[in-house]
Design brief:
By secondary structure, the protein is mostly beta strands. It has one domain: Beta Barrel (Cathepsin D, subunit A, domain 1), CATH 2.40.70.10. Helix content is 7%, strand content 52%. A 4-stranded mixed β-sheet has the order 6-9-8-7. Strand 8 and strand 9 (97-106) form a beta hairpin. The longest helix is centred in the middle third of the chain and has 6 residues, at 55-60. It is globular.
Length: 145
């Protein structure tokens, strides 16, 4: 089966360097403090169920975590240990498409040498877009469904 993705409907992101390796990341637009815009690179992770980031980043985007219940095990690392945090919604843009998703906000120190600013998981993202990883061309293609 051959899958064709029309170029006019496509949002193409070239892989972005992270720790000296090219990674399938997309520059995602966020709004904060009214209408100010900021872009964060987000790792596209087909193995993650939920999108996630860090409480410190969420606070900069204007999320008041006192409105949400802290949970003991919001996510689990490769070592199987739980990470505390919150579940709170966030709207952001992939190309010109606004997406609202429940985000797992990790309540641990953000380390840019070890962590990604933002991780896009399957929930909502993979339901609203067809996503093609073109490893040989070092790019990701999003198409709104």
């Amino acid at each position: 089966m051959i899958i064709q993705i029309p170029k006019k409907d496509s949002i193409i992101f070239e892989y972005i360097p992270h720790n000296n390796k090219l990674k399938p990341m997309a520059n995602i637009k966020f709004q904060y403090a009214g209408n100010k815009e900021i872009y964060f690179p987000a790792l596209i992770d087909s193995g993650a169920d939920k999108s996630c980031s860090f409480v410190s980043i969420g606070k900069k985007l204007g999320i008041d975590f006192t409105d949400y219940d802290r949970q003991k095990d919001i996510a689990f690392g490769l070592n199987g240990k739980g990470v505390p945090g919150y579940i709170a919604p966030l709207s952001f843009w992939i190309g010109n498409n606004c997406v609202t998703a429940e985000i797992a906000w990790l309540n641990i120190k953000f380390d840019p040498q070890r962590h990604y600013f933002f991780l896009l998981g399957r929930e909502i993202i993979f339901e609203q877009f067809d996503i093609v990883f073109q490893e040989h061309q070092k790019r990701i293609i999003f198409r709104k469904v």
